[in-house]
Amino acid sequence: MLSYRRPLLIGIIVAVFSLSSCNSSDASSTSLIQSSGTFDSSNSEPITSETSSTTISSQTFAPITIDGVTYSYRDDEQGYYADGYDSNDALITIVASILGQPVLGITTNAFAYVNSITSLVISEGVISIESGAFYQCSLLATLDIPDTIVRVGYQAFEGTAWQHNQPDGLVYVGKVLYTYKGSAPENISNIRGDTLAIGDYAFLYQLDLESIVIPTGVILLGHGAFEQCFALSNIILPNTLTEIGQFTFASCEALVTVAIPDSVITIDNFAFQSCTSLTTIDLSNTLLALGDSVFYGCYALISISIPASVTSIGQTPFIFCYNLAEIIVEASSSNYQTIEGGLYTKPINELITYPSARTGDTFAIAVGTTIINSFAFSEASNLVTITMDNQVLEIGENTFYKCVNLVNITLSNNLTYIPTQAFAHCASLVSIVIPDSVTTIDYEAFYYCDALTQIHIGAGVTTLDIEAFAECPALAAFTVASANQSLKALDGVLFNKEGTTLLLYPIGRPDTSYTLPTATLQIGPYSFVGVRFLTHLISNGLLELIGHRSFDRAANLSVVDFGDALITIEQEAFRNCFALTSLALPNSVQNIHSGAFRNCTALASINIGNSVILIEAGAFENCSMLEYITIPLTTVDIGPYAFVGCANLTIRARIASKPQGWDVLWDVCDAGTNQRCPVVWGYAGA
Q1: What is the CATH number of domain 8-165?
Q2: How large is the average pLDDT for residues 535-542?
Q3: Which percentage of the chain shows pLDDT scores above 70?
Q4: Fewest beta carbons less than 10 Å away: which of 507, 609, 615, 621?
Q5: CA–CA separation, 418 and 565 (whole Å)
Q6: Does the fold of domain 167-324 match that of domain 8-165?
Q7: Cα–Cα distance for residue pair 348/33, rounded to 1 Å
Q8: CB 569: neighbour CB atoms within 10 A?
Q9: How far is 666 from 673, CA to CA, in rounded Å?
């Protein structure tokens, strides 16, 4: 993955400017600055120090304050950044070096809203002014910027007197084109010839811009430089350009063709995100790095060639490139290769991606592959069968996301983890066997697998996310290896090994009635969510707890036998159970948690027993048909809006007056008007 700041850029700048500001001198000054301190530079030479070690740490170079400016050392860039101000002086000066280490830049929002500053001097050698560095420094009117500055962040001088005083048009900070003030014309060809870089978000949302010529000499296109220039269809890039930043051309929807000059060595994360018309891109023959999701959502891209020079490709480089049918890697590449259409590392270790629109319905993962990257096969709609051998150790999140025609896949016997949404929306997958090697099945791993009817869980699974199989409408049964020490299946329903907790009920099970097994004490959270056919639930008489959202959207559930041992009904346990009309809770129930019966719009009658202690907020929210409820003497706590949306409800309270523990809004039935439900205090009826 490419980071926001890179030593690579520093190396380029050193080469361009031959910086020599990092002089060395007596090593004794190192100890002088080992802890934070201040330094008066008014009559002194720049602070320098000899450094004998090749690995420098911020523990060696602690934060320091010079003329009110604080500087902190960044290990990843081997240099200091100005990051704060503790002075009322009108003039601020950024020094060139400290302790023999370069001052590389000014950090994000370092001087934002400092209204005492009127003038800024940045020393030669500093290369970066990050986003918002002088944001809303309203009195800042004069800038002295060195030629070494090559990155200027978004809104670095927004709200300053200097920016306010600039005329409409191209605005420069030193040799960086910082922004275009006002609305840009359709065509721009007058960028200054000495320009070194285009600033971050310099042309953001310039809706009229159609064509631009970047002059020779420019080495950097900043992050988001042309983002959301929806009409931009033509850009000429110079042969001096070395880096294209993050999101540089994001959402340039009119770009069809881009030629990357051979000078470019880095194309950063999301650089061409959502360039939905891009059909052709010619990559530089000296390109070293492609960032994460660099061509995200380039729907029109059909084919791409990767030059042999590339040494680094980030995560999900072609994610959501729905029409990408071909990835070509230059044969002489030492780092990457394509095998049967799939993009792999060389030698074979990782499968990086597979082109979504490639023809052919069968794919065999190459022998030697140990890692299949996230989204590698996402939306590969033509694949029906995928095979992998037992060398595969890891698959990433969303690896097979929306492989809508995938029917057959055999998983490696050395996989240990099925990650989030690994098989989400695999609409044709009918059954799957989880190998004994797998220990964890994560969140929504098989989410919305519409055709999935049966799942076999191997002996090794110890951790199963409660929503791993959410929204699988055809799922009729689970089976579990007998050697599994954590889980078991009883009549197709998934339980913990002891059988005391029902974990998952297959929502496509055709039975209309289900009786809890003898040992069951708890119904786990989300266990019956969206169950399709169940109308009757019958307790075993020992059930003590019904978990969070256990029966949410159990749309046909109309009869529930709770038994006589139930103590707790957790949050939203019966939310959206539209077929429930009447309920009788046993006298054992003590806790009815928030939203427990929320949106049970047909519920007209409920008896909550005589032992309830707690009724939480919104417990009966929007039970619009409910006419009566009796609150027992044991109830000491009722939360706000417990009965909101119960427009027809009369509350019968056994107690003579409101207890202190009942919220002041406990009986509100209309949240808009704060109208209260009628209450009969001291109710003594049945």
Answers
A1: 3.80.10.10
A2: 97
A3: 91
A4: 609
A5: 37
A6: yes
A7: 49
A8: 27
A9: 14
Say which CATH architecture domain 167-324 belongs to. Answer: Alpha-Beta Horseshoe (3.80)
Q: Is the pLDDT of residue 26 over 70?
A: no
- The first and second tokens of residue 275, run together, are 């360039």
φ/ψ of 318, rounded to 5, equals -120, 30
Identify the CA nearest to 353 among candidates 259, 290, 416.
290
What's the one-letter identity of residue 584?
A
Helices (H) and strands (E) in the chain, counts: 3, 59
> Smallest Cα–Cα separation from 506: which of 516, 520, 491, 522?
491
In the three-class reduction of DSSP (H, G, I as helix; E, B as strand; rest coil), residue 164 is classed as: helix
Task: State the pLDDT confidence band at 61, using cuts at 50, 70 and 90.
Answer: confident
Show the tokens assigned to 641.
Answer: 């809006």
CA distances from 607 to 321, 386, 390 (A): 56, 55, 57
Are 407 and 430 in contact by the 8 Å Cβ rule? The answer is yes
Question: Who's near 402: CB < 8 A, 6+ residues apart?
Answer: 378, 379, 381, 424, 425, 426
- Segments making up each domain of the chain, as ranges: 8-165, 167-324, 357-475
Mean pLDDT across 172-199? 98
Grade residue 37 by pLDDT with cuts at 50, 70 and 90: very low
Cα(528)–Cα(540) distance, integer angstroms: 17
Query: What gap in Å lies between CA 83 and CA 91, rounded to an integer?
Result: 16
User: Average pLDDT of the chain?
Assistant: 92
The pTM (predicted TM-score) of the whole model is 0.86
Domain 357-475 fold is: 3.80.10
Q: Which residues of 275-299 are buried (b: 16+ CB within 10 A; e: fewer)?
A: beebeebebbeebbbbbbbbbbbbe
Cβ-in-10-Å burial (0-12, 13-18, 19+) of 123 comes to: middle
Centroid of chain to Cα 421: 14
Nearest to 245 by CA among 164, 151, 132, 137: 151
Query: From CA 263, how far away is CA 283, in angstroms rounded?
Result: 10
Q: Which pLDDT does position 40 carry in this prediction?
A: 41
Q: What is the DSSP string of 239-262?
A: TT--EE-TTTTTT-TT--EEE--T
| DSSP letter, residue 486 | S
Q: Which residue has the tokens 């729905």?
A: 322
**Residue type for position 322:** Y
CA torsion sign, 420 to 426 to 427 to 428?
Answer: negative
